[in-house]
Design a protein that fits this description.
- The complex is a heterodimer of chains A (about 220) and B (about 90).
- Chain A is about 85% helix and about 0% strand.
- By secondary structure, chain A is mainly alpha-helical.
- The radius of gyration of chain A is 22 Å and the shape is globular.
- Chain B has 4 helices and no strands.
- In chain B, helix 2 packs parallel to helix 3.
- The longest helix of chain B has about 30 residues.
- Chain B is elongated.
- Classes of the chains: A mainly alpha (about 220), B mainly alpha (about 90).
- At the A-B interface, helix 1, helix 2, helix 3, helix 4 and helix 7 of A face helix 1, helix 2, helix 3 and helix 4 of B.
- Chain B: This is Myc-type basic helix-loop-helix (BHLH) domain.
- Chain B: It is found in: Nucleus.
């Protein structure tokens, strides 16, 4: 077991080194700009662009992808459509992102909480469907439509100024901020955007790595 | 005018204008500067929020595309043996 672990660790460090090398140019420019920015904004700005954070995230992403691979290879009975696999990868990446946020932000906690809720819902569903199935499904859909109708009405009222309406829309895009106050939504959005940018950069470099390995000619 | 509107709204969004301007300007830093006007100080909050929503949707779409490509790459790797050894050492 110890030998296996020691074998695994250097490869992950090489990938993160490659990831780091590609990001060095963006990180150095970001570091210089962050020193000139304000107090709180520079903190979060530097947080998501620091090398350390990117190293942490890329390592977690690779671990999460390993698990996705193991799950997909184990569960060969379920129809592995391309869409399902893509969604599984996306969820794993989001989870890794949320974990590297260290629970300081609302959206990261919402992402992690949603996953647990989904697990519980999957367990409870077989029990409720054994009862009158038509009644429960009708009730569920009407509840959902009631909630949706109320939120749409609020958005369409002319009393709510334009800016507030847009903040509500933004709140629905950021996970976990649907019913928060305006300043909370704006703060969460700033952090979420930076985290998403880092996620995109990390996944981009990973895709480049894998595709370059795939297209490289085999050594003779 | 905006003060009156914020007082009339029944929701708990009674933040001061200064706070709002502060947060919106902070948000504006992270948006890509595509629509840069001449007066960069006086971009309306509504425009900034619209750009933010568009940008977040764009980032979501990019993440979806990348995860689809990643899943394809992860599956296609098993076919070739010499590369599979390298990638297995990386991912397992």
């Amino acid at each position: 077991m110890a030998t296996l672990i020691s074998e695994i660790e250097p490869p992950t460090s090489t990938t993160t080194d490659l990831v780091r090398r590609k990001k060095r140019s963006s990180v150095s420019s970001a570091a210089s700009s962050s020193t000139t920015a304000g107090s709180v904004s520079s903190e979060s700005h530097a947080r998501w662009r620091s090398e350390k954070q990117q190293r942490i995230y890329s390592a977690k992403l690779i671990q999460a992808l390993q698990q996705v691979r193991l799950n997909s290879s184990a569960a060969t009975s379920s129809s592995p459509t391309a869409q399902k696999r893509g969604k599984a990868v996306r969820e794993a990446a989001d989870r890794a992102l949320a974990v590297s946020a260290r629970g300081r932000t609302l959206w990261s906690r919402a992402i992690l909480a949603n996953r647990i809720k989904l697990k519980f819902r999957k367990q409870k569903r077989p029990r409720t469907t054994t009862k009158i199935p038509s009644m429960t499904t009708v009730v569920n859909s009407s509840n959902r439509s009631r909630k949706r109708r109320v939120s749409v009405l609020r958005l369409n009222k002319k009393n709510i100024p334009d800016v507030n309406r847009k903040v509500r829309v933004l709140g629905r895009l950021v996970p976990g901020c649907g019913k928060q106050s305006v300043p909370v939504i704006l703060e969460e959005a700033t952090d979420y955007i930076q985290a998403l940018e880092m996620q995109v950069r990390a996944m981009n470099s990973l895709v480049q790595l894998l595709s370059s390995y795939g297209s490289a000619p085999p050594p003779i | 005018m905006s003060n009156r509107r914020s007082r009339q709204s029944s929701s708990a969004s009674r933040i001061s204008d200064d706070q709002m301007i502060d947060l919106v300007s902070k948000l504006r830093q992270f948006l890509p500067e595509i629509h840069e006007r001449r007066r960069s100080d006086k971009v309306s909050a509504s425009k900034v929020l619209q750009e933010t929503c568009n940008y977040i949707r764009k980032l979501h779409r990019e993440v979806d595309n990348l995860s689809d490509r990643l899943s394809q790459l992860l599956d296609s790797v098993d076919e070739d043996s010499p590369e599979a050894v390298v990638i297995r050492s990386l991912l397992m």
